[in-house]
Amino acid sequence: MIPVIKNKKDFDNPVLNITDGVPTVVSLYHDHEPGESSKHHSHDWEHQVYITRGNGILWVDEVEYKIKEGDFILVPPNCTHHFKNTGKEILSRITFNPKESENL
Question: 29-93: CATH homologous superfamily?
């Protein structure tokens, strides 16, 4: 078996996906400009997130949590949430979702 190596600059999200043969998890990359937010949403699965750059907030069920570079985050299933860049530089994050999330 050989590894799959893909650069975020060359592929849309999810960067690593079911067409790559992932057995359990798809991987996504997001950049948020200052003031930018992901959409408010909820889903049946958890996701794990790693903040690679910047700072901001994670909004979960009407509560804001400060986040910053180096944070590992578990977003619980079935909660309404979004990420918002409250800093002056780009907020970058890597998100890991179960592969079933790609079929929705």
Answer: Jelly Rolls (2.60.120.10)
Q: How many residues in the chain?
A: 104
β-strands 55-60, 72-75 pairing:
unpaired
Q: Is the pTM of this model over 0.90?
A: yes
Q: What pLDDT, in 10s, does the model give residues 27-53?
A: 999 999 999 999 999 999 999 999 999
Let me know: does 17 contact 102? Beta carbons within 8 Å: yes
CB 56 within 8 A of CB 87: yes
Beta-bridge partners for 26 = 97
Do strands 81-85 and 72-75 pair parallel, antiparallel, or not at all (unpaired)? Answer: unpaired
